[in-house]
Amino acid sequence: MTGTFHIKENSFWAKLAAKRMKSYKMAMVLGKTVHLYNTDHREFLTNKRWLRHELAHIRQFRQYGWFRFLFLYLVEFIRKGYYMNRFEVEAREAEQDPFLEDQYAFKPNDGQRERGA
User: Fold this and answer.
1) What are the structural domain ranges in the chain?
2) In 10 A of CB 59, how many CB atoms?
3) What is the DSSP string of the chain?
4) How do residues 8-58 score in pLDDT, each as one tens digit?
């Protein structure tokens, strides 16, 4: 196992991203936390494609470090847009990797444990 990750539901940052992307639901990663908007940890964790996509971003944060990854992501976004951004291309490819989720363990907070993580 490579590491653990957390989930923050009703995230302010994910809400901003959802508005920017004109999306009803949103998941985004900052460090090793998946920020969710208009969804909860149960729905997110059962959607393997979505989970693997965000785990790829956690791996990218780990590989490059916080500030370097955010800088590189922004440069890619400005140059190529969201869809062709190399970090998004890599995350979409990771959606098909059945072994990716074995490398990370979800570490629920107390409220997520109570509701059945």
Assistant:
1) 3-107
2) 20
3) --EEEEEETT-HHHHHHHHHHT-SSEEEEETTEEEEESS-HHHHHH-HHHHHHHHHHHHHHHHH-HHHHHHHHHHHHHHHHHHH-HHHHHHHHHTT-TTGGGGEEE---HHHHHT--
4) 999 999 999 999 999 999 999 999 999 999 999 999 999 999 999 999 999
Phi, psi of 109, deg, nearest 5: -85, 175
Q: Express each pLDDT in 51-80 by its tens digit.
A: 999 999 999 999 999 999 999 999 999 999
Distance CA 81, CA 91 (A): 15
Q: Which residues contact 116 (CB under 8 A, 6 or more apart)?
A: 42
